[in-house]
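Give me the 3D structure for Peptide deformylase.
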Amino acid sequence: MRIKIASVGDAVLRDPARPLRPEEIGSETIRELIEHMRETLADAPGVGLAAPQIGEPLQLVIIEDKAEYQATLTPAELAERERRPVAFHVLINPEIELLSPLEVNFFEGCLSLPGFMAIVPRARRVRVRALNEAGEIVTIEAEGWYARILQHEIDHLRGTLYIDRMLSRSFSSIDHYNRHWKSKSKEELLQGFRPKIS
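Predicted structure for Peptide deformylase (198 residues):
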């Protein structure tokens, strides 16, 4: 069952989500929620989904970056983004630690802001401590695009959207991104969106 994804302006995307209680983790309600989220993510499609994006103010995210989603990128683009497939997994009550500065700049989109993208500075490396769907402690050290996905999804649990972190001059429709910016190098992109001095 596909669930409607909340769009920007919906209050649930701006309020901090609450942690799941121990007795909730592994419950039938949460198992069903995860399954509905997984179906919604695949149908969208996207690489991550946070519970607030479907109207549930809970600290729960799912992530899956399938190889098929990367098929339109060249080997050079995949290498530049440090992007590799990531298997489906669930993170509950995650805590994130940035292990590098916010200095890696790429375009990002969001299922809650359909049709738009912007350059967002992110840390190249992060460490995440969380619980999985069985309530077991997991620790993830990620880099590259996986680290970007983790930062984006955990931001959702804090009421933060990528537009709060973006280089505002880079905000663009996907059509204009594909027409003007998709083939540009990282350096060309940053040069194009630096503020103009008059």
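The chain has a mean pLDDT of 93. Let me know if you want a second pass.
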